[in-house]
Amino acid sequence: MPSTHAMSGTAIPFSLFLLTYGRWQYPFLFGLSLAICWSFLVCVSRVYMGMHSVLEVITGCLYSLLILAVFQSTLDQIDSFYLTSHHAPLVIVILHVGLGFLAFTLDSWSTSRGDTAQALGTGAGAALASHLNHQLGLLADPPLSSLPLALPPLSAALLARSLLRLLLGVVVLLATRAAMKAVTIPLACRVFGLPAGDVRQARQHMEVELSYRYIVYGTVSFSCVCLVPLLFSYLNLS
């Protein structure tokens, strides 16, 4: 309680809808319907799999909607600070790691604690990558006068390019995840003096689980937001 899958399954699609509507040209009802269907399917899957009760799922959805309502008006200020402030990297790391420690101290070990740390690590990596992109002048935003952007016409060339980008991006991210996972858990066990023979048992220690989730998924999301787009640019797939 609450369902972290229901929270992320509500926060992600509705955030995407709120942040892209007005930036891209598409019907309001289409975007809203897509967000609702996405959230509904994730929430129903948790009940169907027997992982959560209906009340836990509803609570997770309501938590996410409340958080979105509170922070929606401040997103531009937060985004500006993350992109432009020289103190942003330090704030990002302290904030996300601090929230992870808070989540782990609220209760005994459970998969939801790991899911929370994974979400926070992913957010930290993406925020750090966005800051670096802005500081280096990479992936610059289009001028406000050009918004909303028109969707490109559907064609065979566009589909082929999109499929190639998807396959290449997935391969890079899976390789990054596998490499970081193979290194992080044994290293964390060695640093904290814990036996590394039983990986599942080792990950029930806060030190190992936090290190694993933050380093692995922080690196994956950093690669997704910064390194993979650079690779696309180099291969003329942007």
Description of the structure:
With 238 residues, the protein is mainly alpha-helical. The chain has helices spanning 4-20, 28-48, 54-71, 75-84, 88-105, 111-136, 156-191, 199-202, 206-234. Helix 5 (88-105) packs antiparallel against helix 6 (111-136).
Largest sheet: none
Strand content: under 5%
The count of β-strands is 0
Helix vs. strand class: mainly alpha
pLDDT below 50 for ≥5 consecutive residues: which ranges?
none
Helix content: over 70%
Q: What is the typical, i.e. mean, pLDDT?
A: 84
Indicate the overall shape.
globular
Taken in chain order, the helices and strands follow as HHHHHHHHH
Protein name: Sphingosine-1-phosphate phosphatase 1 isoform X2
GO molecular function: sphingosine-1-phosphate phosphatase activity
Keywords: Membrane, Transmembrane, Transmembrane helix
InterPro entries: PAP2/HPO, PAP2/HPO_sf
Labels describing this entry:
single chain; 238 residues; mainly alpha; 9 helices
Describe, in short, the structure shown.
This is Sphingosine-1-phosphate phosphatase 1 isoform X2. The chain is mainly alpha-helical and about 240 residues long.
